[in-house]
Structures are given as structure tokens and as C-alpha cells.
Design a protein that fits this description.
single chain, alpha+beta, 16% helix, 35% strand
């Protein structure tokens, strides 16, 4: 198997070691065959509490990350992920190959989850396979999208309120950015119209059954802080919840790259998400509306098309999302 991102060899090995459970984790508390003099209830009382997966990175459905490894006397938690991907298909996109294989994730996660100040750091190699677009190698994905450290932020907590500052997961949509976070590794078609990583600041509040969030950020990784997004979620009961998400660019920006599609970065996007969860079952239909005006798309320095033709370009680009940007890169 060819590995096309040599600088991450060491990180790949570290991620593999961190992702494995510790050797002594499942060892029995007593030697086999040795009689126990203590009562059963006393042994149960002294048994250490098993570590549980942390909330970040978020995972869909029944998926969970590996249990964390404690560092610095338990002040820090470290986990990791190592995955590969490969497939062959008979009806591939023109110009693409029928068969692909690559490292899809070799990442480390370091976080502090207690106290009034906390943080989360994520770094390594990743791939973002998506439906209907040419395959992009892991090396090119890192180079042209979010770099080797895609997410990381500081978090300041007071009760049920907290503030996060840094490269944050988006509030938009019902699917996550990285393949290991989703039961469907390529996600759905709607994911191609959503931003994924926002650099900015986010306010979060939980009150009884309500969860509120408001973010000022750079939208589609544009490095221009003109986007506002917000979400309101309500837990109907332990199995049912509903959420509304909305966001958009308060200005306009002519930047067009693989991570910053022109039409999508100058758009407004809205979600209505219903989630039913019971045991290992998750049912999650959601409605998504994306709008982008012709005036925000037409820029003389990027296109000679007049605004009327730009309107058609808006409809086409919004429907294909990152597909056009990927094709240009190739």
C-alpha cells in the first residue's frame, strides 16, 4: 500500500498506539484460581471506575472514541484514531480513477475537560470523501483544506454557560466533518453544501431542555469574519429532540478556493433537524435550505459573466457544493 504523506509516519504510529486500549485495562482483579478472602460486595466497592469516552470529538449514533489515556496526573486526556479507506467503483466521475486507497485518519486528540478553563486540540492526517466528487488524496486534502491541525479551541466555563474561541466544529447540519465520526463515512449530499470548520468565537448556554448557541466566524474558512450562525435545540424527552440552525454571510467576499467555495461562502443556510434515539437506533431526517444571491457572486476579478448569468451559476454551484472546487484542483 502506498502512503503519500510521509511527514505523518510518526504521527500515524502514535495514533495507533493511543487508539489501542491499555494492556492492563481488562485484566482480572485476582489471579486465576487464587481464593478470595474478601466478600464480593467489598471487592465491587473497591473496583476502580472504568474510564468512559469523552464528548469530543463528537460521534454519531452508537459510535464512540477510544477511552482516554490520562496525562499529567489526570489533568489531560489523550485519544487517537487510525483508519484506512479503499474502494473500487464502476461508474466513477470523469477524470477520476476507479480504484482508490489511502490513510483516511491518523489523528491525535488532546483535551482538558475540567475546571473553568478547558481546551481541545486535534491534529494529524485525514481525508474527507464525499458523494459525487473526485477522490482527493489525504496529502492533498490536508494541504488544500484545513491543514494538519483542523480543529482546536480554548473553552471558558461558568455553570451551564461557556465560551469557545478557535477553530470550531460548525453548528450547521446533522453530520460531522471527519469520516470516523459518522456511520456513513461519505455522509449525504446535503453535507456538501455545509461549512465544516469555523474559525471564530461561540457562546453556548444550556437551560433545562433548551440548548442555545451563537457563533461569529469566518464561514467557509474564508479568514474573513462576516458570518453569524446560531442554533436552538429542544429535548422533547429522552428519545426525541428537535433543532433549528441558521446562518449566513453578513457581507460578501470574492475568495474562491477548495475550502472556500465562492457561492457557498456568500450564502445563507438553514436547517430543521429531528432526532430520535433509542438504544443503538438513530433516526434523523432534516431539512436544509441554502440561498445565494447573484449580486454576491458576480465579481469582475473572478468572472466576466454579468449578474443575470451569475444567477444561473449560483443555482449550479450551490447544488454541487465542493465538487466544482475539487474539479478545479485536479
Amino acid at each position: 500500500m502506498r502512503i503519500r504523506f510521509l511527514p505523518f509516519f510518526v504521527l500515524l504510529i502514535l495514533a495507533a498506539l493511543v487508539a489501542l486500549p491499555s494492556f492492563g485495562q481488562n485484566a482480572p482483579s485476582d489471579s486465576q484460581g487464587a481464593p478470595s478472602s474478601a466478600p464480593a460486595d467489598s471487592a465491587a466497592a473497591t473496583k476502580p471506575v472504568e474510564p468512559t469516552p469523552l464528548p469530543m470529538p463528537s460521534m454519531s449514533g452508537p459510535l464512540q472514541t477510544a477511552v482516554p489515556h490520562a496525562v499529567e496526573n489526570g489533568k489531560l486526556a489523550v485519544t487517537g484514531i487510525l483508519t484506512g479507506i479503499g474502494w473500487t467503483e464502476g461508474n466513477h466521475v470523469n477524470g477520476d480513477n476507479a480504484t482508490h486507497y489511502d490513510i483516511s485518519n491518523a489523528q491525535l486528540f488532546v483535551q482538558k475537560t475540567s475546571g473553568w478553563w478547558q481546551f481541545y486540540l486535534q491534529g494529524g492526517a485525514y481525508n474527507l470523501p464525499a458523494i459525487g466528487v473526485p477522490f482527493l488524496s489525504t496529502a492533498d486534502t490536508i494541504k488544500n483544506i484545513y491543514g494538519p491541525f483542523p480543529q482546536g479551541y480554548a473553552k471558558f466555563v461558568k455553570g451551564n454557560f461557556n465560551v469557545e474561541i478557535g477553530a470550531l466544529p460548525t453548528l450547521v447540519g446533522a453530520e460531522y466533518t471527519f469520516s470516523f465520526q459518522n456511520m456513513n463515512v461519505e455522509r449525504g449530499l446535503l453535507w456538501g453544501q455545509e461549512n465544516a470548520v469555523n474559525r471564530g468565537i461561540q457562546l453556548n448556554e444550556t437551560y433545562k431542555k433548551w440548548t442555545l448557541a451563537l457563533s461569529w466566524n469566518d464561514g467557509f474558512y474564508s479568514n474573513r469574519y462576516t458570518w453569524l450562525t446560531g442554533s436552538v435545540a429542544y429535548a422533547i424527552n429522552s428519545a426525541n429532540s428537535v433543532a433549528f440552525v441558521g446562518g449566513g454571510n453578513a457581507g460578501s467576499y470574492a475568495k474562491s478556493t477548495l475550502a472556500t467555495p465562492l457561492a457557498l461562502n456568500n450564502s445563507d443556510i438553514y436547517n430543521l433537524i429531528y432526532t430520535y434515539t433509542r438504544g443503538h437506533w438513530v433516526v434523523q431526517p432534516y431539512l436544509q435550505i441554502t440561498t445565494s444571491s447573484a449580486d454576491s457572486l458576480w465579481r469582475p476579478e473572478l468572472s466576466t459573466s454579468p449578474p443575470r448569468e451569475a444567477s444561473a451559476m449560483a443555482r449550479s454551484t450551490c447544488s454541487t457544493g465542493r465538487a466544482a472546487a475539487r474539479s478545479r484542483l485536479r
